[in-house]
Amino acid sequence: MKVAILGTRGIPAKYGGFETFAEELAVRLARQGIDVTVYCKADNNQQPGTYKGVHLVYIPSFHLGPLTTIWFDLLCLWHARNKFDIVYMLGYGASIVCFIPRLWGNRVWLNMDGIEWARSKWGTFAKLWFKCMETVAMYTPNQLIADADGIKEHLQSRHKHMPPCSVIPYGAYVSEVSPPVDLLREWKLYAKAYYLVVCRLEPENSVSEVIEGFIASGSSYPLVIVGDHTTRTPYVECLLRLKDDRIRFIGTVYDTLKLQALRSHSLAYFHGHTAGGTNPSLLEALGCGNMVIAHDNRFNREVAGDIALYFTGSHDIPGIIKKIELYSSHEQEGIADKAKRRVQSKYHWDDITAKYMRLIADEPNVSIPDYTGGKK
Length: 376
Fold this sequence. Notes:
Blueprint: E1 2-6, H1 17-31, E2 35-41, E3 50-51, E4 54-59, H2 68-79, E5 86-90, H3 100-103, E6 107-111, H4 124-136, E7 143-146, H5 149-158, E8 165-167, E9 195-198, H6 207-217, E10 223-226, H7 234-240, E11 247-251, H8 256-264, E12 268-271, H9 280-287, E13 292-295, H10 298-304, E14 309-311, H11 317-324, H12 329-346, H13 349-361
C-alpha cells in the first residue's frame, strides 16, 4: 500500500499546522507498514531522501503570485499521478486538478481544512476562487476528510452532492511536565501572571476584540501577543494603534520549547479563531493545560467543550477576566487537568492514526497489517 501526502511545504515541519499534521501522520503510518511519501517544496538547503521512514519527494516551486500554490500542487499531482494507491491532498485550493491521479486509477482523498472563503485576509477574487474550489471538491476526489463535525455539517448544508466524508481531527500532545519558568525571562514574564494570544494577526482571529476587551478589563497583568507584527498590513496597523502599557507584541516565536513555556505558564490563553475546524493552536493550548478564553463558535465549542470560557465580542471579555482572576490555585489545577484529559481522550495522535488506518483498510482491494499484526 503506497500513500502520498501533498499540499504542504514538506517535512520535517517548520512552518504551520498542515506541515505538523503531515509529519505526525506520515511517520505513524510508516511505522504501521504503510509505504508513505510526502511531497516537499525544493529549496537550496539539504534535501534528504527519507525522514523517519517516510520517503520525501522535492518539487520546484516557482513564484507566480497568487497562482504559486496552485501551480505547485498541480506539479505534485502530476508527479504522483501513477505512483500511489492513495493520493491525499491537504487543502482544497487546487481541487480542480485533483482528478489527475484518478485518470491513472489512483484513489484521491481531499482534506477540506477550514472555510477558506470566509477568511477576511483574502480579496474578492481569492474568496470567489475558494468558493468555487469548495464546490469542485464535491466532485474530484473519491473521499473527503473533514477535521471537525462542524466542517462536515457546513459542507452538507451547502452541497447536495458529496463524496463520502469522514471526520478525522488533528492530534495533539499532552504536556506532562511544564518547561522551566526561566524561559520566560527573555520577556520579563512570571508564571500565571500574564494572558497569551498566539495566532496570525488577521481579522478572523478576533485580535482587536481581544485587545479592546482586555484593555477595558483593567487587569494589572500584561497581554502577550505572539504573532508577526512587523508586516504592517492595515489590520496590524490598527492593532498597533490600540496602545496600552499592558499590551506586549513580542513577534513570532519559532522555538518550540519557548512557545510551550509561554503557553504552559500563562494565566489564560485567548483563542479568537472564527473560520476553522479543529484548530491546532487550540489543541496545543488544551494539551498544555491552559485556561482558554475562546470565541464562541461551533468549531471552538466542538474542540474545547465546557472547559473554555466563551466570548462573542470585546464586551464579554472584562467579565471573563474578572472571573478567572478570582479562581483559586486549586480551581486552576482542576481546569488544567480537565483540559489535558480532553486532549488525551479525543485528540491523541495514535487514535488519529488508527482512524486513518481504518479508512485505508476500507479502500477497495486493500490488505494492510492492523495494530495486532493481523490483516484487515
